[in-house]
Amino acid sequence: MPDVRLASPQGRWLLFTTVLGSGMVLLDSTVVNVALPRIGRDLDADLAVLQWTVNAYMVTLAGLILLGGALGDRFGRRRVFVLGVVWFAVASLLCGLAPNAGVLVAARALQGVGGALLTPGSLALIQASFHPDDRGRAVGLWSGFGGVGAAVGPFLGGWLVDGPGWRWVFLVNVPLALLCVPVALRHVPESSEGVAHGRFDVLGAALGALALALVTYALIEAHAGTWAVGLAAGAGLLAAVAFVAVERRRPDPMMPPDVFASRQFTAVNLVTLCVYAAFGGFFFLAVLQLQVVSGYSALGAGTALLPTTVLMLLFSARSGELAERIGPRLPLTVGPLLCAAGMLLMVRAGPDASYAADVLPALLVLGLGMVTLVAPLTATVLGSVDTARAGLASGINNAAARAAGLVAVAALPLLAGMGPQAYRSADAFDAAFGRSMLWCAGVLVAGAVLAWATVRRPAPDCGHPECRTHCGVTAPPLEGHRPAAPPGDRLNP
C-alpha cells in the first residue's frame, strides 16, 4: 500500500516535482500561441508555419499520450516521468535555438513526445505514492497549483516575448527541468504494475499519430491544390482505417473498441470533439487577432485572455458539484451555447478595440461557458464506464480533445479563406477571423444539440473525477487508473 504522507518532507517534494513537471506542459500549451506573430516575423514564416508550430506538438502528444501512460505502468512511473521531463527540456532547447522554421517545427514534434511521456505520469505518481487518506487532498493541491500555472501562462508568455524574446518561451523549460529531475530522483518513490500489462500497442500509436499528421498536412496545405495534398489526405484516411482495424484485432489494444459499447461514452466523446475543436481554433486565432488587428502587444494579448482561465480556476470545482446534483445534460447543453455566444461577441474585437467594451465581455461569457461544461464533461466520461477503466476512458477523452484541437487549427484558416500571408494584413485577418468565429460557434451549437439529445445522468455508483480544479484549454483533465472493479462489472449501457 502507498504510504507517503502529504505532511512529510517527502510528500511535499513529491507534490512539488509533479506540479513542476506537469506545469511545463501546461505552460507550453498556453504561452506558445502568444508568441506566434513574433515567431512568424522573425523567421519570415507564413501562416502554415504558425499552424505547424502548434500542431506538430499536438500531433505527437495526442497520438502517443495513451502509450506514454502504458509505458509508465510497465517500466516505472518515475522513470518514464523523468525521461519525459528530460526529453521535453532537450526539445525545448532545440526550439529556442532553432535557426529556421523547419527546425522549430521538428523540435515541436519532439516536444510532444516528451509531453506524452511525462503528462500521464504526473498524476499517476501522486495516486500511486500517497497514502489513501491523503490522496484526495494531494490530487486537489496538484490540480489547483496546475490551475494557477495555467492562469500565469499567457501573462508569462507575453512578458517573455516582449522582453527577452520569443525563444525564451521555450528556453524557460530548461531550468525548470534542471530543478525537477534531481528532486524526482531523490524524493519520488518508484511504482509500476510490471507484469500486469501485455504487449505495447506501438503499431496502433504509430498509425494514430500518422493519420493525424497526414490529415493535418492536407488541411494546412490544401490551398496549394497540389497532388501531394490529395495523396496526403488519402494516405491519412487509410492510416485511420488501418488504426481502427489494428485496434479491433489486437488482444491488448491502446484504444479498446469495446469501450465504445457504452452509448454514453461514445456520445460524450463526440461532444468533446465539438467543444475542443472550437476551443483549439479560438485560442489559436484570438491571440493573433488581438496582436495583428487590435494592436495589442504580446503581453497585452496574453493578459487579455486571463479571465477565462481565472473563472475556471475559481469555479470549476463548484460546477462539478452542481452537475452531480442536477445531472450533466443541462450543463453540457448550456455550456457550449454560452461559449458560442462568447466567440460571436469576440468578433467585436476589431481595430483599436476597447478591452472593457469589446474584449472582456466576450471572454467572460466564454469563461462562464467553459466553467459550466468542462467539469461535467469529465465526470460524464468517467461515469460512462466501469471504475476499473476510468484511466483508460479519461486518456481516450483527453486524446480526442487534443486531436480535435489540432484538426481545427489546421482546418479553420482554410474554411475562413485565410491565405498564407493573411496574418500580415490587419484587414484580411479581421475579416477571416469573423468567419472563423461563425464556424466555431456553429460547431459548439452542434455539440450542445448532441449533448441534449444523448447525454443522460450516470449511475449513482459510477466513478467521479479526482481532479476537481482544471484550467487547461486544450484538453480535459487526465484521470489516473482506479482499483479493479469487482468481477462481473460491465460498461454502463
UniProtKB/TrEMBL annotation:
Gene3D superfamilies: MFS general substrate transporter like domains, Multidrug resistance protein D. GO terms for biological process: response to antibiotic. Its main location: membrane. The chain crosses the membrane at residues 12-36, 48-68, 80-99, 105-126, 138-160, 166-188, 200-220, 226-246, 267-290, 296-317, 329-347, 359-383, 395-416, 436-455. InterPro entries: EmrB-like (IPR004638), MFS (IPR011701), MFS_dom (IPR020846), MFS_trans_sf (IPR036259). Residues 474-493 are annotated as: Disordered. Residues 14-459 form the Major facilitator superfamily (MFS) profile domain. It is a multi-pass membrane protein. GO terms for molecular function: transmembrane transporter activity. It is found in: Cell membrane. GO terms for cellular component: plasma membrane. The keyword Ribonucleoprotein does not apply. PANTHER family: EXPORT PROTEIN, MAJOR FACILITATOR SUPERFAMILY MULTIDRUG TRANSPORTER MFSC. This is EmrB/QacA family drug resistance transporter. It comes from Streptomyces glaucescens. The lineage of its organism: Bacteria, Bacillati, Actinomycetota, Actinomycetes, Kitasatosporales.
